[in-house]
Design brief:
The structure is a homodimer. Chain A is α/β, with parallel strands linked by helices. The first copy, chain A, has one domain: Carbonic anhydrase (Beta-carbonic Anhydrase, Chain A), CATH 3.40.1050.10. Helices cover 36% and strands 17% of the residues of chain A. Chain A has helices at 3-17, 42-46, 65-78, 98-109, 123-135; strands spanning 30-35, 53-58, 82-88, 146-151, 158-160. The first copy, chain A, has a five-stranded mixed β-sheet, covered by helices on one side. Chain A is globular, with a radius of gyration of 17 Å. The N and C termini of chain A lie far apart (44 Å). The interface between A and B is large, with 92 and 92 residues.
């Protein structure tokens, strides 16, 4: 049985306890940008309830152009005013270089991607770069209330970087 | 007190019950692409445990270039083989047009963005487009096992589209 069948089956139980009636704009007025890593559960980590916060996730939790698109929509149209960034230890993005991954893709696809894989060699440095990308982005309204953290996937603890 | 202080405070309690020792590659070999909407909790909806699945999220749950970057890393480096897409009812992306949002940003920032806001007028149509973007992307290895759903934010139910 494909995994997706298992997930769909579980979703039928979820509907029974789902808290409906929450508003579209996030109640806590916060947007979280986090890595896609399977060991990172933003709802659990931050004690979120349904309706509390926007959660944006990608490989690395990097503030990419698409993350900035999402944040612009979050702030301009849905009223969020704070941003929380979460990278984590043992991240896959630390295990390769952009050049090496482009070579892997070139071999597999017969062409190199036009986009950057966005790998990084140091968590704290990338968090600081992500904060800098937010502070300098003209399409965001609230650029000061941004904090960057590293989540430890072994201890479950959060460490503030910037 | 800023919201981020509340979230950081809650995270200290999370560490006590965090299940450490889970591997970097997602146990269920699945990557989920979902909207950032605050009423969508992929862990709750799909009964995920820490370590089970990659979760990629952005405004709309659209398969953008950055989502494809994340999926390429997920499949090539971390072994996922299935993709589950989740849009949802009452989505903010249905409430504006790209042209209108570009005009809003131009007024606020003094310049228009070079990126597409990726708004859409119909959930099912956008799910089908997102599936098509995956099936035609040369940088993914597993392009057949992809399913698209719409989550009902009022009932908590999931409906398969494609």
């Amino acid at each position: 049985m494909p995994t997706s069948d298992t997930l769909v089956h579980r979703s039928t139980e979820y509907a029974e306890r789902y808290p409906s009636g929450r508003a579209l704009p996030p109640k806590l007025k916060v947007a979280i940008v986090a890595c896609m890593d399977a060991r990172l559960d933003p709802f659990g980590l931050f004690g979120l309830e349904v309706g509390d916060a926007h959660v944006i996730r990608n490989a690395g939790g990097v503030v990419t152009e698409d993350a900035l698109r999402s944040l612009a929509i979050s702030q301009h149209l849905l009223g969020t005013t704070e941003i929380v960034l979460v990278h984590h230890t043992d991240c896959g993005m630390l295990t390769f270089t952009d050049d090496a991954f482009r070579a892997t893709l070139a071999k597999s696809a017969g062409q190199r991607p036009t986009w950057s894989p966005e790998s990084f060699g140091d968590l704290d440095t990338d968090i600081r770069q992500s904060v800098a990308r937010i502070r300098s982005n003209p399409f965001l309204i609230h650029r000061d209330a941004v904090r960057g953290f590293v989540f430890d996937v072994h201890s479950g603890e959060l460490r503030e970087v910037s």
